[in-house]
Structures are given as structure tokens and as C-alpha cells.
Structures
1.
Amino acid sequence: MIAWLDGAIPYLKALHIASLVIWCAGLFALPLMLARHDPAIAQADYSRVRLACHYGYTWVVTPAAMVAIAAGILLIFMREVFVPWMFAKLVFVALLVGFHAWLGSTIVAVAETEGEHQTPAPLLPLLLLLVLVLAILVLVLAKPELDKIPLPHWLMEPRGRQLPFDAPPRL
Ligand code: HEM
């Protein structure tokens, strides 16, 4: 790796960690904020919670997720971590992204669509989120040797075949 690129790794890692802290904090906060969408509260409070959810999701949590993911993808190539624990981590990150998308669709359904909507109770989503975040942290911090897990050999070596679809035209 080029020396100055190596020097950028600590800064990129700091950016990765700072943005994922904001991302994950938002994922924990939003289900609790959604639970405050109670028609029984005063109109002004309801509007405040609704706007906080909307702007928090679109202007803080989603951009932080994008920065965390972009920095993480760059780190994969700069640190050359093409190893099983990283692939396992990416599976859990994919589930985290799914959770993020579920939150977005729930915010739209509960707070931005006409009609009566039931806000989801926060306990179960928060437990699920805790499991996902802990799994990611264990994988990335312990970096366990997962090489012993048997994988089918077709996943471990190049297949040397054509792609199963037409190659996109070159521009
Ligand atoms: C697509 C999303 C992500 C990608 C591609 C990614 C990739 C990476 C890479 C390549 C590293 C450097 C590993 C090393 O230097 O050994 C790293 C570090 C780290 N990641 Fe991620 N990551 C992602 C999301 C997350 C999430 C969601 C969390 C936590 C919930 C997380 C937590 C961490 C931590 C704590 C480190 C520092 C580990 C260390 O330096 O020992 N990452 N990530």
C-alpha cells in the first residue's frame, strides 16, 4: 500500500467510528421517539416529535450511515481485510441496514401517512438492534478465526466461468 495512504488509515477509522456511533445512537433513539407518537399528547408536542423523527432520520441518521459505510468499504481495501470475520460482520451490517430501512418505512407510515397507525412497541426492535450491534462489535474487535468453518469449495476459489448475464456495454 502507498505510504501516504497508510497514513490516512487512522483518520479514516476515526471517521468510520465517529459516524457509526451517530448512526447506531440514532437507530436506538428513533424507535423510542416513534413510541411517543401518541395522539393523546398535545398537538404541539406531537408535531415536535414528528419533525424530530423526520429530520433526525433524513438529515442525521441516514447521512451518518452512508459515511460509516463508505469509510468502512474504503478501509476494507486499504487494510486488505478479505477475511471470514469481516464477511461475517458484513452479514450483520446488512441486517442493520435492513433495520434502518424498516425504521424509515415505519416513520413514513406512522407519522407521514393519513389515517390511524399503530406505533410499534420499542422493546423488541431495540433488543434485536442490541443483538446486531453486539455481534458486529464482537466480530470486529475480537477478529475471531473463522477459517475452520467449512464453506463449500465453490465459494472459495474462482469459478473461471462466464458471468450468468450479459456483460454491460463498454462506454
Ligand atoms: C458496510 C459497513 C461497514 C464496513 C464495510 C466496515 C468495515 C470496517 C473495516 C474494514 C474496519 C477496519 C478493520 C481493521 O482495521 O482491522 C472497520 C473497523 C471497525 N468497525 Fe466497521 N464496517 C462497517 C460497519 C460497522 C458497524 C455498523 C460497526 C458497529 C456497529 C462497526 C464497527 C467497527 C469498529 C469498532 C472498528 C474498529 C476496529 C479496530 O480497529 O480494531 N463497523 N470496519
2.
Amino acid sequence: MPTALITGATGITGRATVQQLLKSDQWTKIITLSRSQKSSHDDPKIQHATIDLQGDTKDMVSHLKEVGEVDYVFFCAYLADPDEGKALEINGTMLKNFIGALRDLGYLKHLKRFILVNGLKQYGVHLGVPKMPMVETDTWLEGNPWPPNFYYEQQRILSAAAAADANLWTWAVTYPQDVIGVAQANFMNLATALGLYASVYSSVSEDHELAFPGCKENYMAFNNWTSAKLHAEFVEWAALEPKAGNQTFNVVNGDTESWQNLWPRLAERYGAKVPKNMFPKEGKYKDFESSHVDMPTPPPLWYHAEKIGLDPEEIKNDHSWLHQQIDIAKWAERPEVVKKWEELRDKFGLDQKTWDNATWVFISFLLGRNYSCVTSMSKARGMGWKGYQDTWTAFDETLTELEEQGILPKASELRK
Ligand SMILES: NC(=O)c1ccc[n+]([C@@H]2O[C@H](COP(=O)([O-])OP(=O)(O)OC[C@H]3O[C@@H](n4cnc5c(N)ncnc54)[C@H](OP(=O)(O)O)[C@@H]3O)[C@@H](O)[C@H]2O)c1
């Protein structure tokens, strides 16, 4: 009966992984690690340890000695830094030190598979329009003009560590898209930020409208999302499926969705109306200080141009851009918005930190980019993965869970 160890167990992907393994009978012991917050799971199968993966390796070794050998590792720890070079250094070092500690303890001799969670930055979705659909064999964006990418660093560290042990243990890496899940005060949290925006915006609006803050291009674009629960099912599958060893996998819900389809449902959930003209030419939203940022050139698509029969010169200087008709970070500072949040906070007994830690910049990017992000699931499906999650259901259920946990105002009681 295998033992699992999950790093980043309090984060959005780690927390869902812990819940998934708890549901499944085959795991006898689940070791959860995080840096600061205590694990929120209370179950006899769980042993929690607080370890700073940036800290001293000797400390890490002595803590890991207490938890004992493990069969499967799920590495969901992540530390954000806006400087891509520093993010590479930090996240690369955390992984390297952790594997080093397992090696020092002799635990790698016992290990069966190491699962690493990365994401779609693998394809440069943060740098501009990618080649679509994104597939795992797409060339890595490395060297001039591309910025450092900590995913590449982590994948190299992991595969080199397995090779150093003659591949006696194997690895798998996942690339989720924007994750829909539950976590508190983490770095990228789409559902919490969206739920805060929807509840406060629709309550401030006299007509109870819910305006889409991003741009029309984004509203009309196609995207995939990743439910944290589905991703957790996937990492369990990737750990146990013999064919998944030493492989990388996209992980998305399995439907292709758009805000034109999701936003009206979100509005309805919050008892709000979709504005008659969501994207007025004249500045209805000018008071909210719209913002526009051109992304650097070239976009990732340029790297693939020749191979797919497009003229690289034509694409090279094509700016992708981010446009918000309502700049959410600025909107969140408006006096009437802050006042409404405080009213809702007091009415529902919420924590001020939820508002203070809302990941506005992250969702501004997700709603403001002027391009689609569509990902292929063919590789995993070809190996027998059958998981699927309807994206709207994932949003609706996650928002409900966040309400039940006292993180978000209850949509059904907003104006009662
Ligand atoms: N969130 C998304 O929408 C999304 C989308 C695509 C890809 N991804 C990728 O998924 C991976 C996992 O990210 P996530 O979003 O699940 O992370 P997250 O929700 O921000 O959680 C980060 C976790 O890492 C732990 N951690 C941070 N620094 C640590 C340290 N020094 N020592 C030990 N633990 C530390 C945190 O512990 P504490 O709580 O104790 O600080 C927390 O449990 C990342 O590669 C990320 O890029 C995320």
C-alpha cells in the first residue's frame, strides 16, 4: 500500500491532490508539506510537516527523516516572483534541494514516481499568442529573445535526478491551464478573485449589471480551463499509470469554452444582468480607468511560424496585447467599491485578507489578453486517460465551496 508525499499541500493544486488521495482507498499514508499554513486536512492518514524548501538542507533532512520513506511524490510547491530570472532561481532551488534531501536520506531508492506540477507557461502563454492547439512536443522557447522559464529548469533538474539513479524511479510533469480551485492567500486564484469581483461589482451597480472587465477579443476567444479536482485525479492517474512514466502532459477539463458562454451564467449566478452592450465604443467605463499594455514581440507563435508554413517576418512584430475596459486593480481601490466590500465582509463575516490578497493582476491578464489559449489532451487520452470536467460546473461548484468556507460572500444572499 503506497505512501504519498505532497509538497505545497495548502496551495490550489496541492490541496486538491490531498483531497483526491484521501478519497482513494489505496493510499495508506499521506504526508503533506507546506511552508507556513498548517494543513487544513484532518484525517488519521495524514502526517503534516512544515518545511521551508528554500531553507537549510540539513533542516529539511531532519524533518523528512521524521516522515519516513515515500513511494510517490507530488511536487505542488510554488513561490511566485515577478522577475522570471529570480522565479527560475527560487523554484529551481526548491526542487533541487528537496530532491537532494531525499537522496541524502536514501529515500530515492524507495521512490517509484515523482510528479511535478508546471503549467501552460511551458508554451509561453504569458508572452503572447501561442501556436494552437498546444501539444507536448512543441519546441521549448529558450535562448534569445525568450525570458527564463522556471518550468524548463525544474523539468531538467527532475529528469537529470532520475537519470542519475539509472531511471530506477520515473517522473511525470503536468501542464494545467488556469486552475479553478480552492485555496487561501495563494499566488494565482481565478475563482476567488472572480467571485469577489462579481459580488461587489453587481452590488455596487445600480441596475445590478455585471460588466466584463477585460476586452471583447478575450470575450470572443476560446480557452480551456483546469479544475483543481480534475487535475488531482490526473496526477493520481499519472503516478500509477505505467505508460505515464517520464512523460509530460497537458491537463485541461476536456471542453473548449469562452467567456461569451460563461459570463452570462456567472451574471445569473450573482443575480445580475449582462449589460445591453458589454463593450460600448464610447467610454461608459471611463471612470474605471481602462488600461492597455502591448506585450513584447515576438509572440511565441513566431517561433513555430516556419514549421507551420507562416511567414516569420509577418508575425515577428505582431504585438499581442492586454486590454481592460475596467482595470480591476484600480477599480478595487475606488471608495464605493471598498465600502461595498466592507459591507459584504461584515454581513458574511469574511476575512479582510481575502480582499487584500485578491489576485487582481492575475485575473486581469486572463480576461484581458487578446488571444485564445487552446490545448490538446490527445496524448493523455491516447494512454487511456478518460477524465472530463464541464468548465461552468467547475466554476459554479468552486464558488459554492468558497462560499461555504466563508471565503466569498454567498451569491444567493447578496442583496437580501
Ligand atoms: N494557480 C493557477 O491557476 C496555476 C495555473 C497553471 C499552472 N500553475 C502552476 O502550478 C504549480 C503549483 O502552483 P499552485 O498555484 O498550486 O501554488 P499555490 O496555490 O500558490 O501554492 C503554493 C504552495 O507552495 C508552498 N510553498 C511556497 N513556498 C514554499 C517554501 N519556501 N517552502 C515550502 N513550501 C512552499 C505554499 O505553502 P504555504 O501555504 O505554507 O505558503 C503553498 O502550499 C506552479 O508551477 C504554478 O505555476 C498554477
3.
Amino acid sequence: MLTPAITSQASITAIGSFVPERRLTNDDLSAMVDTNNEWIVRRTGIRERRIASPGEFASHLAIGAVRDLLDRYPLDSGSIDGIIVATTTPDSPFPSVASRVQEAFGMNGCLAFDMNSACAGFVSALQTANGLVLTGAYRRILVIGVETLSRITDYTDRSTCILFGDGAGAVLVEHAAQGAFLASDADTIGAGGPLVYASGLSDEWNGQPLAGEGKIVQNGREVYKWAVTQVPLAVRRMLEAAGADMEELDWFVPHSANMRMVEAMCERMDLPLSRALTSMEWFGNTSAASIPLALDLAVREGKLQAGNLVALYGFGSGLSQSGLLLRWTIQSKTGR
Ligand SMILES: CC(C)(COP(=O)(O)OP(=O)(O)OC[C@H]1O[C@@H](n2cnc3c(N)ncnc32)[C@H](O)[C@@H]1OP(=O)(O)O)[C@@H](O)C(=O)NCCC(=O)NCCS
């Protein structure tokens, strides 16, 4: 697959995040299923995750992330003309989480919709926002990644319940004369659908029954092999399209599925692990929220600096993969 450099008139100008109060530690999980802290940390790098309270849904987390963004960056919320929410776990099939965010902030004259490409969702939403800004019809679009995966996690299955958590991250994609999005990448292998899924209105796949009764089911080993093979190739494609080298890449921000996967990807790219930004250690695998959570952790720690070359790469159920190479454009002093 050839990855073209992209035309862009967009850059990221603000960021915010929000996670539920309640922590679920590895020791908590050890009391629920046959596992232990040592196994979970060694195989996944995850130490704890956040779990939404009974009355807390995706819209509450998304609204929390947008409120955090608006608190930290001077911005008239009335000037926002688009809201795209990437999620697999909306409050309800409809109305969208995006329309609940619109209502919470009274953003009038706004395009608002949800999209779902699972763990690739946030990057797919950024690509979509770039396209909308390029038309000239939209100038300021909120892109939100949010999940309440605890609602579709089977807490009797030790191979999945150790992985997933809840959270939200939001960025503002704004029109910029000189776009900061340099190259994009995407692929989908629909035949890989049964490797990681949650059944819904249908519980069959091409005539074969799907298990799990709406909870997450996965073949972790096969997903692992696919991702650690494909993502390094894709990052190289994006760098090549933008005329850049791996040495010039300041930060690699993969979907935070499992730290061991990130290590394997970095090894295959000859990239030091210290140049990867992740969020799974404290939040687990939060699907569409994992990349913006990792970005915001890095902003708060002062790691991400304006001008940095950053490769975002989402991958997961679909099987879907989606990448974006960009220049980071937020001045660090405006972060908290
Ligand atoms: C899920 C994952 C952590 C499992 O790690 P793994 O090294 O592949 O482990 P396996 O599934 O092969 O299981 C190895 C052994 O550990 C056991 N095991 C599984 N989960 C365990 C747990 N939580 N605690 C202790 N042992 C566990 C298995 O039962 C198996 O035991 P056996 O050898 O006696 O049969 C790993 O495959 C993974 O992270 N995959 C990617 C998943 C992913 O990214 N999914 C979302 C898509 S975005």
C-alpha cells in the first residue's frame, strides 16, 4: 500500500482529558479472577484502570474532557462548528454522544456525530476532521475519543478483564494556513472481524455464532501478531511519504493496548522505547481514548513540545488501522 503525503489545513491547538474517579488495581482483579499483579504487569504493563460509576456514561466522560480543554485554553466554545466523537460504547445507540456534548456546552450551528472504528477511532476522527476543514466549511472541530469499556468487559474472563478501562480525551482541530498533518495511513481487514469483537443486535458472523453475549471477546495472540507486524511498516510508510527519517521522529503514540506490543513495535522500528508515549499503565486499554490520554499525559509532563514530529497509530477491532504523522502545534506553556 502506498501512503501519500496529505493536504492539510488543520492543526491541533488545544487538548483536555477526563477519567472516572474509581480505580481498579491489579490486586483488585486478583480477588475477582485467577491472576496476579506480577503476571499482569509483566505481560501487559498495566497497573490500574479507571471504572465509570453506575450513573456515569460516555457522554459524562466526554463532557469532562471538553470542560478540561476549555478550562486550560482560552477559547470561545461558540466558535466550535464541529464535534466528532470516536467511541464503541456510547450511552445509547442514539442520540449520539456528540449531540449530548453539543447540548452541554450550547454550541450552536454545529455538525455533531459519532463514529466507530474501535481502537483506530480517534485517529480516523482526526483524519475526518482534517478533510472537513479542507472543504472550507468548518474551521474548529472538537475530536473526542471516549470509552466506557467496563460496561462490555466480562469480569469472569481473566484473559480480557485485566486489559480494559474507561476514559476520555479531546483535542481541538483548527484551521491553519499551514497544515500540521503531514501524512496519513489506513487499512482494514474485515475478514479479521472475529479476532476481536462484542456482539450486538446480531450475534453471528457469516453464519457462525459469536460468543460473549455483548461482552468483549478476543484472540489476543492473533491481534498481537497482526498489530506488531503492521504498525511498524505503516509508520515507516508515513515517514517516507513526508520525506522524514525514523531519527527525526520525536514521539511514537500507538494505541495503548499492551506495553509489550509497544516494545515489540519500537524494536522493529529501531526506535528507543523512551520515544513512545502511552497511557495503559494507569488507564489500561481505553480503545478510542487511549491515544488522546497518552498525548495529554505527555503534555502535562512537559514531554510534548511545539514543533515535535509525532506519529499517532491506532489499531484494533475491524481489523482496522489508522495513522497520522503530524507536527505538534500546542505551545507547552498553555498546558497545565
Ligand atoms: C491478552 C494478552 C495479554 C495475553 O497474553 P499472552 O502472552 O498472549 O497469553 P496467552 O493468551 O497466550 O496465555 C498464556 C497463558 O496465560 C494464561 N493467562 C491468561 N490471562 C491470564 C491472567 N490474567 N493471569 C494469569 N494467567 C493468564 C492463559 O490461560 C495461558 O495459560 P496456559 O498456557 O496454561 O494455557 C495478549 O495476547 C495481548 O495483549 N494481546 C493483544 C490484545 C489486544 O490488544 N486487544 C485489543 C485490541 S486493540
4.
Amino acid sequence: MTALPYGGTLVNRVLSDAARREILAGIDDRKTIAIDTQGALDAEKIAIGAFSPLTGFMGEADYSGVLARSRLKNGLTWTIPIILAPRIAENPGLGDIHVGDSPVLLYHGEPIAVLHVEEKFPFDKTEFARRVYGTTEDAHPDVKKLRNAGDTIFSGPIDLINRVSGADELTPEETRKEFDRRGWETVVAFQTRNPPHVAHEYIQRCALEQVDGLFIHPVVGELKKDDFPAEAVIESYQYLVDHYYPKSRVFLAPLAISMRYAGPRAAVFLAIIRKNYGCTHFIVGRDIAGVGNYYDPYGAHALFRNLDLGIEAMLFRESYYCRKCRSMVTEKTCGHPESDHSRVSMTQIRKMIVAGEQPPIEVMRPELADLLVKYRPYLEAGLK
Ligand SMILES: [Zn+2]
């Protein structure tokens, strides 16, 4: 028995084959809205139930509730607005789309979903940036991205015509079946957008001691330019799962979402998603979903202590190797000074790989570092 979906019911807004064919047959007569990657991935995640209980893009009551109180209008905690504010430049006919219309959402010209427009309201981007990201600075990647958004939010339920992500991305229904098949009653999710650091492995093992299974669910989809490419993350985790972890206890699948670097707020959103995928526990490490120095690295820990999302947060301090203890430790478990610690951040590891240096063995497994060398040109470009 996996965890109940958030809000109690797993949403399914994927059209049946017959309904899909009917829409595609009459598509030339429909109004259209061109959407960006975030819009397409959000539509897909809504439709497959990853964002349950959302059935579409948020209306004004949900949107303002999330901004002001981190709550949907039904009272459930929700921290990241899921909205559609289409770009004006790519949508000259946007003004002709009215409440009651059901335009088709196009991504790179391909029909993705039907939006049943229930509301249109102005989008205050400054307010959004301030409330969600705590800053209006362009140096924040999500704030910068907001510049491209339109000035009007279109909301309403959606029906999915076509998937955006590859077949390797499982739906919540599929992961739930997989957990059941494995007989896992308790499953801890690990959120990541990095290849496995030894410190990550340590935390995963600690967490797995407490539950039946570990679900490694790296974010692919839309990331910031200095993150590792998704293929590097998946490939290195696949290696770890194949060569180190017991197959019966660890399951790996990608999650294609548009990453929101909103620190603690994003951490709550990421936990809710994992509840929908059937997880009972969620690992919250240091500076989860953070960027730069915008967020308190342990702000998410404080937030989760005061929330009841129906998924249990497993809180971990930053871990590193201690030469005196001769093991992985945290500030909670080791009393030695920093000079005894081997502490290398993921940013430093990226730089070492670009420079052709081998990260220390207690920081990254050498075979993983070797495997990442081929992503050097990509990492180099991202560091610029
Ligand atoms: Zn120590």
C-alpha cells in the first residue's frame, strides 16, 4: 500500500485515444496558444497526477492563496503557483481567447493539451518574484525567466493530448505499481539534480535504513545552465544502482519538471510531487532547491517541522568525510575541527572535472568521475 495521493485522489487528465483522435481531427478549427517548456512540462505533470490535486492551471483564488498563505483555496498547503502566462510575442492572437474557449496548447508546434479557459487575470510578475523567490533580482535564474512571461494568466482545467517527456519518465500510477510489486510499504524519495556525491550516497543509505525502499528521482526537464546535464545525472546514478545498491531496495527514474529554484518553498512542492508518486518519506538535505545565497540552507528543515503534508520529511545536515573519525559525518556526529574534514561542494566538483582533475575519492567515486569526463564541454559552457 503506497501513500495516498496529495488531497486523496490521483488526478488523471490524459485523454482517451478516441477523445484524442477527435480533437486532432478538428484541430484546424481551434484557437491555439504557443507555450514554453515550463508550460508544457506543467501541463503534462498536471495530467498524469504528479501535481494532484491540481486539474489545470491555477485560477485567481488558488494563485493568490498560494502567494499570500501558501495554501490552495481548499485549504491544502501549496507553495509554488502553477500558472500559464503565455508570451505575447509568440501569441499575437492571445486577445481573441476568451473565458469559455478551449484552445489547444502548442509546444514547438505540436499539440500538447486542451485548456478549458475559466479565468483570465493580470499577471503581476514583480509580486510573483518577490513572494515566490524572495527577490526581484535578475541574477536569480527563475526571476530572469519571468521576463519572458506574458502579462495575462490563463487558467482552467486541461486535457492532455500528447506526452512531452520520453517513455523512461514514469507516471505516478506506474511508480505506485512498481512499489507495490516490490512489496514496499514505506518508500523514501531522493530529490536531486546532481550526479551522486559520496555525501549523497551516505544520506541515502542512512534513510534507507529506516524504510523499505529508496526511490532516486532526479529532476530532468528544465534546469539552470550550470547544472549537470540530465543524461550525466541519470547515467551516473544508473551506475551506482547497478554496481553498489541492492536492486531489490533501490529504484531509479527521472522526473521531467521545470525546476523552481525557490529554496524551502520549492522543497515543499518537490515533497508533494513525491507523495503523488507514492512515497511515504522525503529526504531534505542542505540547501535543497537553492541557488546562489538566496535561501537559508536549513530553512526547509524549519518549514517541514511545522507542516503536515502527509509525507514524512527526513532531515539531514550536510555530510562530509572526517579523517579522524574515518567515516562520513555531520556536525551532529563529529566533534573534530574543519581541518580534519574533506568537504568539496558540487560546484567545486564541476570545476575539477572541467579542469581535468580527479575529485578526492572520499568525495566522489573515481569511476563516476571518469564517467562524467565526457560531459566536460557542457559543464565548461555552463560555468561561463
Ligand atoms: Zn570526526
